[in-house]
Amino acid sequence: MSKVLVVGDSCTDVFIYGNIERISPEAPVPVFNPINRTENGGMAKNVESNLRVMGCSVDLITNPNDIKKIRYVDNVSNQMVLRVDEHDYCDRIDQNELIRLDGYDAIIISDYCKGFLMEDDIEYICNNYKNVFIDTKKMLGSWIEKATFIKINSLEHKKNFEVIPNYPNLSNKLIITQGKKGCLFRDKLFPVEEVPVKDVSGAGDTFLSGLAFKYLETKDIVKSIEFAQECTTEVVQKHGVATV
Length: 244
What we know:
Blueprint: E1 3-8, E2 10-23, E3 30-43, H1 44-54, E4 57-61, E5 67-74, E6 80-86, E7 106-111, H2 119-128, E8 132-136, E9 149-153, H3 154-159, E10 174-177, E11 183-185, E12 188-190, H4 203-218, H5 221-235
Parallel strand pairs: 1-4, 1-7, 2-5, 7-8, 8-9, 9-10
Antiparallel strand pairs: 2-3, 5-6, 10-11, 11-12
Helix pairs in contact: 1-4, 4-5
């Protein structure tokens, strides 16, 4: 059994499903009638949950305060009509935590840029530990060059497009997810099966979990990408933030 450490910002994902049958007379907004509510751990906690389901032994270092992402979803159309984020920032990781990370087969950094990890923190982990998989919302730079693999989505890649050529060491480590198109790695497109999508929330967490899990098992990044995509294809067909 692989032993994995997840480090990063976490939240509680709340989904409130309800009916919309009319527009408010006070303002041009829908009147939402809540019917049912679900809650589960999100961001780094979602990565942790997926890894546990896959059979890994997992530890988590994350923020103690509870960030909440509350989504209001119309039952009929399955469209999100409002998202409310509460306590959308957290304190920085205790620096003493960074010197006690030995004994893991891999470290997964789930960096949602809420304040828990600074560039220096991630650089320290990359420089001192093996098999570091990262999903980050930060602008890329030299601080991340020693990561094993870096997962970003197409919008994040576009944001970093002019920066990436300045750091040639990143080119062989970047895995760019592109939604229903699949993902791009070393200029090769890995397509995905087209399926009916109910919710993409948390899909990136599942991809990262599957990637690290299969890489520890096979040491084959192509097989790992394909497995990660199979996992993602499964969860986007479920409501809310789901695990495989």
